[in-house]
Amino acid sequence: MISKKTKYGLHALIYLANHYNKGPVLISDLAKEERIPKKFLEAILLDLKRQGILESKKGKGGGYS
Predict the structure, then answer these.
(1) Do 26 and 61 touch, CB atoms closer than 8 A?
(2) Which of 27, 45, 48, 63 is the most buried (most CB within 10 A)?
(3) 3-class SS of residue 65
(4) In sequence order, what are the beta bridge partners of 28?
(5) Which residues are paired to 18 by β-bridges?
(6) Cα separation of 15 and 18, whole Å?
(7) pLDDT higher for 60 or 14?
(8) What is the pTM of this model?
(9) In this structure, are residues 36 and 4 in contact, taking their beta carbons and an 8 Å threshold?
(10) What is the phi/psi pair of residue 63, to 5°?
(11) What's the chain's Rg over C-alpha atoms?
């Protein structure tokens, strides 16, 4: 059985992969499109960033890629 965290993480990674080279994706957009609770998604993406799987950019035009 796959945990919700793992399931949501995979959905987020697939979404980000589909938007590769289109610029960073906002957490709010990803959460809305994939129907993932925003706070839970923030924690998942932060874990993935710490592991070196994702990159993030702060400020205007920022997000995850």
Answers:
(1) no
(2) 45
(3) coil
(4) none
(5) none
(6) 5
(7) 14
(8) 0.86
(9) no
(10) 150, -160
(11) 11
Please tell me the chain's helix, strand, coil percentages from 3-state DSSP, rounded to the nearest 5: 55, 10, 35
Report whether 27 contacts 38 (CB < 8 A).
yes
The pair of three-digit structure tokens given for residue 63, joined into one six-digit string: 């997000």
Burial 12-39 (b: 16+ CB within 10 A, else e): beebbeebeeeebbebeebbeeeebeee
pLDDT digits (tens, 9 = 90+) for 35-63: 999 999 999 999 999 999 998 888 887 88
Helix 4-18 crosses helix 27-34 at what angle (to 10 degrees)?
110
**Three-state DSSP class for residue 25:** strand
Residue 56, amino acid: S
Residue 48: both structure tokens together: 């993935």
What's the token pair of residue 33?
A: 């499109």
